Amino acid sequence: MKTHLLPVAPALALALLWSPSAHALSCDEIMNMVNVNVPAAIVVQTIEDAGEQFTSDDIRCLTNEGAPAEVVAAAKAQMQKAAPEEEAPVRGETTKAKDDKSEDEDYESTEAIGAKKPSGGKTLQDLPEEGGDAEDDGRDPEALDSAVKAYNAKKPLTASYELHRMLQENQFPDKESKILYYLARSLYDLEMYHSSQYYFIEVLKKGPSNPYFKYALPKLVSIAKYTGDESDLARIVAKIPPEEFPRSARNQLYYLLGVRLYEQDKLTEARKYFGQVSDKSDLYTRSKYFEGVIYNKQGKLKSAVRSFTDVAKTEATASTQQELEELDRLRDLSLMNIARIYYSIENFKDANSYYAYVSRDSRYWPQSLFESAWANFMLSDLNLTLGQLLTLESPFYNKDEFVPEATVLRALTFFNLCEYEDVDRILLDFDARYRPMHAEMKDFLKQYSTEEGRKLADQAYDRYFGDKSADTALPKSLFTRVLRDQELAGIVTHLEIMEREEALIDSQKSQWKDGVGEQLHKVISEDRERLKRRAGLALLQEMVTMTTYLGDLLTQAEIIRFEVIDAKRGILNYMMTTPDLSDTSKDAALDFATSANKIYWPFNGEFWQDELGYYRYTEQGSCK
Question: For residue 413, which of 422, 404, 403 has the smallest C-alpha distance?
Fold first, then answer.
């Protein structure tokens, strides 16, 4: 998932969101689903799951509104099956709606990687034998039964060794799904997450009709959250017809399908699937954020603001620290997106109010402060603009934040104050600092500009992420900014996890290492090359963006310098035509009056953390 900021535009009306939970359905609700192109098979399934007793008026309404024939037939079937009055369930029995809710709650409670399991019992009922499903009617061979028992006895090394041997020797081909599933589970418990993901994906490839599909999917989602790399999972999901999604897996599958469609720029379809993620799911906030981004891209600014506001108001509660950090990140990004929308319609005052909501502890606060400086520049509050830019130049941020545009804005602000000598000095420093970076990135991209060059994208990744001692003019702050692209950051994290996993494999006993470990090394080696090439391509794309961005700023800097020369020429001409002109400002008294509601301290060149963001210049300017 990329860090999506700014693009704005209109979208379609929000549809009735399909939910797996049973509830009474009206004709209008059913037609809402039909009108937003929810597959007829899902509408039928929803009608059947709801257990609603349709009347003849409902059937007439559906027919008149043009509902598909299979939808009308499903509603008629529900009317025919309706009993005059349902008896209340006896003690110990449950209704179907309650059963559905229980299943969804179990699925949504999938533990996060690294989460501690409470003592005294199981945390999840996600094993097939616990859920009541069986792969086939026959009994398992003794060897497989023994391996599963070893896994259940918390002996994942023993279980994985035996299961791997069965798989390699193709001992029980009709039991392959079960062997793959329990091998993946064993490796998951050993914290070998990439290897585990490989075997869970092999289960997923067998399709949703496979009884182990809905048990493998939650684990894959957990691993993808941990690595930040959802690409492999999303590609598999995109091949599964939505109407075949297992009920317990639909939230995750709808989200992943939405991500896939978004990446293909199929925005309307993507928003439809994001809209179907239940508000009880831990993926709901992420889906809502994507919804805001899509509305924004499509130009429906009010709808985008509503979606981003919903995310920003989400309560900061999560089961793990990782989820809490993800939620905080989405809330801050939502506030910044709202601010950018107001900025785009030139409502700079409201834009500033939303930038101010971003927490000072947020990793996005420096960026929000810079963007707020632009808003204040547009409001002609130039001294506040300079004060905000001063914070970005402080030692707290100048090594971590790559914001070259801040220097250009500083020069532009002094230009508007007619302080031309300051502008010249700032822009000469800017050119000396950033032109070598721009040249290095251009040369780097040139090596991979051809089709043959792009095939060597893994080398592009190694150039900056593999060789830590590489000679480069590019600062660490630039790569910090580049890694805010969630796709690239996820791959880099995934590769680091694979490196640690190889060390963990090598630390096991020789019998396991020479058997299972050898195969896992092979899997990791092949996947590493694939991931490095993907990371290299993502890096090249980011470098294209950064090179264009920096090139534009260098051009803007040159234009400002020409404007400075022109302005100076105008001043000289004026002075030459007015020989008696004297400098009347030399003896003028300066007025340092300040607001009675604020305490002002002069800046002495020393930065204090509690003062950051509160600086304001008292520059009078030299404009006549």
Answer: 422
What Å distances lie between residue 288 and 182, 259, 297, 331, CA to CA?
Answer: 34, 12, 14, 11
Following DSSP, what letter does each residue of 488-509 receive, concatenated?
HHHHHHHHHHHHHHHHHHHTS-
Are 262 and 238 a contacting pair, CB within 8 Å?
no
Q: Which are the contacts of 136, defined by CB distance < 8 A and separation ≥ 6?
A: 174, 175
The alpha helices in 483-620, defined as continuous H runs, are: 486-506, 510-512, 518-577
Of 503, 506, 480, the residue nearest 492 (C-alpha): 480
Q: Is the pTM of this model over 0.70?
A: no
State how far the Cα of 97 lies from the Cα of 109, in Å rounded to an integer.
19
Other C-beta atoms lying within 10 Å of the C-beta of residue 591: 8
pLDDT tens digits, 331-344: 999 999 999 999 99
Q: Which residues are within 8 A (CB) of 499 and not within 5 positions of it... i.e. 6 or more apart?
A: none
User: What SS3 state is found at 425?
Assistant: helix
What are the residues whose beta carbons fall under 8 Å from the beta carbon of 297, sequence distance 6 or more?
Answer: 7, 8, 9, 267
Contacts of residue 152, defined as CB under 8 A and 6 or more positions apart, other chains included, come to 127
Kindly list the distances between the CA atom of residue 81 and the CA atoms of 76, 84, 86, 121, in Å, as whole numbers in the listed order. 9, 10, 12, 42
DSSP string, 35-58: HTT--HHHHHHHHHHHT----HHH
Q: What is the DSSP letter of 396?
A: T
Give tens-digit pLDDT for 11-29: 222 222 223 333 346 777 7
Q: How many residues does the chain have?
A: 624
8 A C-beta contact, residue 39 and residue 242:
yes
Contact 430, 557 (CB under 8 A): yes
The tokens of 177 are what? 């799904």
* Long-range Cβ pairs for the range 482-489 (8 Å, 24+): 482/539, 482/542, 482/543, 482/546, 484/3, 485/2, 485/3, 485/538, 485/542, 486/1, 486/2, 486/3, 486/228, 487/1, 487/2, 487/229, 487/231, 487/538, 488/535, 488/538, 488/539, 488/542, 489/228
Q: How many helices (H) and strands (E) does the chain have?
A: 28, 0
Do residues 233 and 257 touch, judged by C-beta distance below 8 A?
no
The three-state secondary structure class of 547 is helix
Q: Considering only CA atoms, which of 261, 303, 264, 258 is closest in space to residue 277?
A: 258
Per-residue pLDDT tens for 106-120?
333 344 444 444 333
**Percentage of the chain exceeding pLDDT 90:** 39
CA 180 from centre of chain: 30
207's enclosing H/E stretch is none
Buried/exposed code over 27-40 (b: 16+ C-beta within 10 A; e: otherwise): bebbbbbbebebbb
Q: Are 149 and 165 in contact (CB under 8 A)?
A: no
Residue-wise pLDDT for 421-440, tens only, equals 999 999 999 999 999 999 99
